[in-house]
Specification:
This protein has about 675 residues and is α/β, with parallel strands linked by helices. It is about 50% helix and about 10% strand. The strands form seven sheets. Strands 8-11-14-4-15 form a five-stranded parallel beta sheet. A four-stranded antiparallel beta sheet has the order 1-7-5-6. It is elongated, with a radius of gyration of 34 Å.
Length: about 675
């Protein structure tokens, strides 16, 4: 058994005392000026710091449907290994960062409330939480360092102690206005217009003003003596410790009190200091006070009482707060609020809210509309690390995500396009007759897409229900989850329209049909996954196509005699992917051109590089082999040894190539066998 002293020694070896001391640095005001001269960015305002924090994690340029986006890696949440990662919201996040950049440059948006607006469960809270977490983390790095100061005070017994500035202010505020221009000229000397310039914006808070005045009087106006009573120290932002990061959530209207935002008089200290206007008798503990130098989040901001909104407007527009019966106080903080659609509609129709509308920058945060991104949201919570002792069968999360996306998409105006096909186009699949430009047009004609539909939260709840309800099962399959999704619709609190409920139920049927096609295709491919047979079939097809397009004959491999190209073979393959008779010549020429282009690059043709041809070959081989496997016999109780061996081979391929386990592979084979028993064999296309 390990001794306690050994454990302590082990932890002691992991300590980094130098790093601790760096993060808890203290020094004189003159030493701080030297730090500023070397690294002026320590004086950044809150918007500049938040913007730089996001950039510090890196960026990359991506192209989605011919449109360029900057992707900010910060929103992958590298701080907590993806715990709060955001998927598929490149455009809204880029809009948000652009607003922060504009504010950092002082173009006006620093005087606005950033309003994240979108349906419930669309990641608004996660974005705000990430910004707070990121700023907290950044303040602990060398690049994100910032400083505040303490006042030297004599205690009752004559002992020395330090009283912190209650607003964690920038130490440069201690420089009197009349000296600022000269000092800034010195600090910014030699810096070009594109270099960061030190600025001093704002004044000391009322408490520090009082302390400053008292000392200035005591030292006969000698400002340098005042500085001797100052200790500058590094400050680490922390939501938990209420330093530089604040969160405000409205209570019910009867219990709302503006002092929660702007601080309040400490009545017990009035007797000590003799006046309720003495700053020492004031608690600087409102959310605006404690969030100074950082960020404040307003949860459901539009539920605020009107009296609170005036404080919010003053804070955003003037960067000042005016507590009740107390002096005005300067603040420096990013103000982020979030709200959902019904609350925002109330704002638009309320003339009293006009001032707030005018002082907000609205950033729409819709639901995800790309299937692969929605799947990632669910995989974050439902994976082998989080769900132990139970497997989630292949496609279970995919069908849930597919349904969620379908509820959010608008019906395409193009009559020849189904909602499912639109989902596939958005997910990067190519469909005949649709270009990237067409997809861009589809997105532009559906401006409100993603602002309505089913929340990921609802789907997550139903996946959890399925895991619990089928506790005795070793795996959870797509039908279990689809059934949970459907039964929950009857009691869904946000669906108050019977037509919408019917539409969502219809979409579940669409998803079941798509799932059926997917698993039939997988089983067919597993049956036809004989590499040698596929290669032979492909070689035979290409020989015939080459002869056909060049008007030549094919040499029979057995007789050695020249023969006409085998039209029956070629059509039996092409029909599997719905190539009509009228298009066969075009398709065959496309194949030969493709092979020719590869040859010019010194590459050899491989059927696997052409998805449509691979699918056609697999379906043809499946058609030729399915009778020998007699998969339909699975639905009967008696299976002969030869058939069982072949079925085991197919099952092994499902496990190896498609992520099934023994149980789910058996289930899916039984399910597909029952479909084949009805004579319903999957054809190509789709």
């Amino acid at each position: 058994m390990t001794a306690g002293s050994d454990l302590i020694a082990k932890i002691a070896r992991r300590q980094n005392l130098a790093e601790y001391q760096k993060k808890h640095w203290t020094g004189t005001f003159s030493e701080y000026l030297e730090i500023v001269a070397q690294d002026p960015k320590v004086t950044r305002n809150a918007y500049q710091r938040v913007y730089d924090m996001i950039l510090s994690f890196g960026t990359e340029e991506i192209i989605i449907h011919k449109e360029k986006f900057v992707r900010y890696r910060f929103f992958d949440d590298p701080i907590e290994d993806g715990h709060d990662a955001i998927f598929g919201l490149e455009k809204p996040l880029m809009n948000l960062v652009n607003v922060l950049k504009s504010a950092a440059l002082g173009y006006g948006t620093e005087r606005r409330v950033l309003l994240l607006h979108g349906p419930v469960g669309s990641s608004k809270s996660t974005i705000a939480r990430l910004l707070k977490k990121g700023l907290e983390f950044y303040s602990q790095t060398d690049d994100g360092a910032l400083y505040t100061f303490d006042w030297k005070e004599d205690g009752p017994e004559g002992e020395l102690h330090w009283v912190p500035c209650p607003m964690h202010e920038e130490p440069l505020h201690l420089i009197p206005p009349e000296y600022r221009a000269d000092l800034l000229a010195e600090l910014n000397a030699g810096r070009g217009p594109d270099d960061f310039q030190v600025r001093i914006v704002g004044e000391l808070d009322p408490y520090c003003r009082q302390m400053f005045k008292e000392r200035l009087e005591r030292y006969g106006g000698d400002w340098t003596r005042v500085l001797e009573d100052i200790r500058v120290r590094r400050v680490l932002l922390s939501e938990q410790d209420r330093v530089g990061i604040g969160t405000f959530q409205p209570k019910d209207e009867k219990n709302q009190d503006a002092t929660e935002l702007t601080g309040d008089i400490n009545y017990r200290k009035i007797a000590e200091y003799g006046s309720d206007s003495d700053p020492r008798a004031f608690n600087f503990d409102g959310e605006f006070n404690i969030a100074n130098r950082g960020i404040i989040e307003f949860i459901e901001v539009l539920k605020l009482d009107v009296a609170f909104l005036y404080d919010l407007l003053g804070a955003s527009q003037e960067h000042k707060i005016k507590p009740k019966k107390f002096a005005q106080t300067d603040i420096d903080e990013v103000i982020v609020g979030h709200t959902n659609e019904p609350e925002y509609r109330k704002l638009q129709s309320n003339e009293f809210m006009e001032a707030l509308r005018d002082r907000t920058v609205k950033i729409d945060v819709p639901y995800v509309t790309k299937l692969s991104d929605e799947i990632k949201i669910y995989e974050k919570d439902y994976n082998s690390r989080r769900v132990t002792g139970k497997r989630i069968a292949p496609h279970t999360l995919e069908v849930a995500a597919m349904w969620a996306i379908l509820t959010r998409l608008e019906e395409p105006k193009n009559a020849g396009l189904t909602l499912m096909q639109k989902l596939k186009l958005y997910n990067g699949k190519t469909l005949p007759g649709f270009t990237e430009d067409n997809i861009k047009e589809l997105k532009e004609e559906a401006e409100r897409e993603g602002m309505l539909g089913i929340s990921p939260r609802y789907v997550q709840d139903k996946i959890s229900n399925a895991l619990v309800a089928h506790a005795e099962e070793r795996s959870v399959n797509p039908f279990m989850v689809l059934n949970e999704l459907e039964s929950g619709l009857r009691h869904h609190s946000l669906i108050n329209n019977e037509e919408v409920r019917k539409h969502y139920k219809h979409l579940l049927a669409v998803v079941k049909e798509e799932y059926e096609d997917v698993v039939k295709n997988e089983v067919q491919r597993a049956i036809a996954a004989d590499e040698e047979a596929l290669t032979r079939l492909c070689g035979n097809y290409i020989d015939n196509v080459k002869a056909y397009t060049q008007r030549e004959k094919v040499k029979n491999k057995y007789t050695g005699q020249p023969e006409e190209p085998d039209e029956r073979l070629m059509r039996s393959i092409e029909e599997k992917i719905d190539i009509p008779e009228s298009r066969k010549d075009d398709f065959r020429r496309e194949i030969m051109n493709y092979i020719g282009a590869l040859a010019l690059d010194g590459k050899t043709f491989d059927y696997k590089t052409n998805e449509r041809l691979q699918k056609a070959l697999e379906l043809k081989l499946f058609q030729d082999q399915k009778d020998t496997i007699k998969l339909t016999s699975l639905v009967s109780s008696v299976v002969d040894k030869d058939t069982q061996e072949k079925i085991d081979i197919v099952k092994g391929r499902l496990i190896r190539d498609y992520g099934y386990d023994e149980d789910s592979a058996t289930d899916v084979l039984n399910y597909v066998a029952s479909i084949f028993a009805r004579g319903d064999v999957k054809r190509g296309g789709g």
